[in-house]
Amino acid sequence: GLFVWPLRNTSVQIPCQFVQLYHVANKRLITFQYCNILKRMYVTQCKRDLSQRAKPKSDSIVSPFHELQQLDQEKKVVHKISPVSPVHQSWSGTSSRNELREMKSAAETEDSVIPVGAESKECRQWREMKLRLDDLPGILARLSKIKLTALVVSTASAGFAMAPVPFELTCFLLASLGTGLASCAANSINQFFEVPFDSNMNRTKNRPLVRGQISPLLAVCFAASCGIPGIALLTLGVNPLTGALGAFNIFLYTCCYTPLKRMSIANTWVGAVVGAIPPIMGWTAATGSLDAGALLLGGILYSWQFPHFNALSWGLREDYSRGGYCMMSVTHPGLCRRVALRHCLALIGLSAVAPVLDITTWTFPIISLPINLYISYLGFRFYRDADRSSSRKLFFCSLWHLPLLLLVMFTCKKSVLEKEDKGDPPGGSHERALGIRLP
Amino acid sequence: PPAHSRSDWIGPPDRHSNLRPIIFHVPAEESALERRLREARQEAQASNQRFWARHNRAFRQEKEEFIYSRLKAKGLEMRDESGRKATLNAEEMADFYKDFLSKNFKKHLQYNRDWYKRNFRITFLMGQVALVRALRWLRWRKKNVEP
Q: Quick one: where is this thing mainly located (chain B) (predicted)?
């Protein structure tokens, strides 16, 4: 299921808009539960001044970036250039004096917020590199980016739910589990590849491999022990097509996207494909074939990635530049904004195609038009203004836009029964995990 | 780290390279394979440290120079009346970031290649060491279990 994190000091913006849209949606019986769970995923840790925005339902390109830090604090250009210490930090320094100085200077170098709390203090000391078994679950959760994995699984579930076949619980569970395992494996390998780069970026410097809490060997073994059973489960327990898609997605993410991030801006497009595949996997798990509906759902996720990621990357330009990541926001800022806007508009188009493919009724493009127009409006503002506030607005909008869109899509889904026997009353025979069908 | 410790120790991030230094424990009965692993890790650590310390230093320096030159072009001083450092906003800095990234592109490509090679080699050696240790332990168990 989804991870539910306690709600602490969320920004006011999100709940308000949720409530607004909820009313706009004509008091439909959207399961409020679902909305609440999603809202709770937006955790703001005010204590450490970090905003953890759990990215809803997509893999890949935002996966490295799902912790958005307080931009106002970080991106101040004023850099406290700490005076170069006359004593070079000796590597095998065992003298306590050096350690102390290292600890002090490490505290200065942090151009992020002043760390509070015991955990950060622990980071500043020398730690024994021994694996503690009771820490292991937490470490593996962070290694596999468990929150992101949960969102990927929910995207796949959305794909499964939208497929025009009767709902099968075992198939659904197997597909979700397999997708989750595959995602864990991919994320672990990604972290395995990126240790020195993660150390240098504020957002990622607390990852387990960076902190030495786990050895690279163990990370690879964990990835293998998740990936192989996951893909096997998908291939044998669901169907070979889903298994193949899962394996391909792991390959695309670890061997294409991750190295490409440092070589060319094309990584964003590859990452968007990685994010689009899970719902396709959900669909093929249900139907066993790759229909136009699957591609449409994948297309929606694909287009969504761009406003989401481009807006996010706008605020991280300094870290990308220093870390050597080739991102549009750094090298081709104009293109970055154009692409974001283009894909916001594409979402409107894709929503309109849904009823043509018999996936949803005609109500879907109509109901989704307000939210799609809103994100397009923010995309346009981002395109025109190109500043931090517009990029943030667009990013936060994308966080609720996607779950809401998928929810509306689901409620507008064309019933299988409706297509078969027009006479019988709809609903009732298929129990859905989410929501109640509308007459 | 204490002298009697039998494991490696990892420290806080270095202020220049942001990498965490590791002090490797050299066991008395270290095998040739284990020595190769340790040396590979030490070498990788040193190389990473060199690269990132130099790279980050260059970044900071060039950033300072950029800010200085831009401020001068605008006719402002480095510090305003209250003594605080003058800043440029993110949009003005964007030119610098783009420039810096393209200047260091080749350097990064080279580093990436090296890093991936080293990473694979170290992990593979770790695997070998772990396998040898496991076999050794199994043999020891067998010897001790049997009368």
A: mitochondrion
**Partners of residue A109 in chain B, C-beta under 8 Å:** 13, 15, 18
Is A324 in contact with B49 (Cβ distance < 8 A)? no
Q: What is the pLDDT of residue A129?
A: 83
CB contact under 8 A, B13 and A262: no
pLDDT score recorded for residue A123 = 57
In chain A, domain spans: 133-289, 291-415
Render A28-69 in DSSP notation, one character per residue: ----HHHHHHHHHTEEEETTTTEEEEPPTT--GGGGGG-EEE
pLDDT in tens, A117-129: 444 555 567 888 8
Length of chain B: 147
pLDDT (tens digit per residue) in A312-359? 999 888 899 999 999 999 999 889 999 999 999 999 999 999 888 888
Of B19, B104, B122, the CB nearest to A216: B122
A28: burial class by Cβ within 10 Å (0-12, 13-18, 19+)?
middle
Whether ipTM > 0.90 holds is: no
Question: Poorest-confidence range of A77-81, A311-315, B106-110?
Answer: A77-81
The alpha-carbon gap from B57 to the nearest alpha carbon of chain A, in Å, equals 10
Looking at domain A133-289, its CATH architecture is Orthogonal Bundle (1.10)
Looking at chain A, which residue has its C-alpha nearest residue B48? A196
Kindly determine whether residue B119 and residue A126, on different chains, have CB atoms separated by under 8 Å: no
Higher pLDDT, A70 or A127: A127
Using a CB-CB cut-off of 8 Å, the residues of chain B touching A211 are 10, 20
**Cα–Cα distance measured from residue A412 to residue A365, given in angstroms and rounded to the nearest whole number:** 9
CB pairs under 8 A between A and B: 153
Among B104, B119, B121, B100, CA closest to B48: B119
Q: What is the CATH code for A291-415?
A: 1.20.120
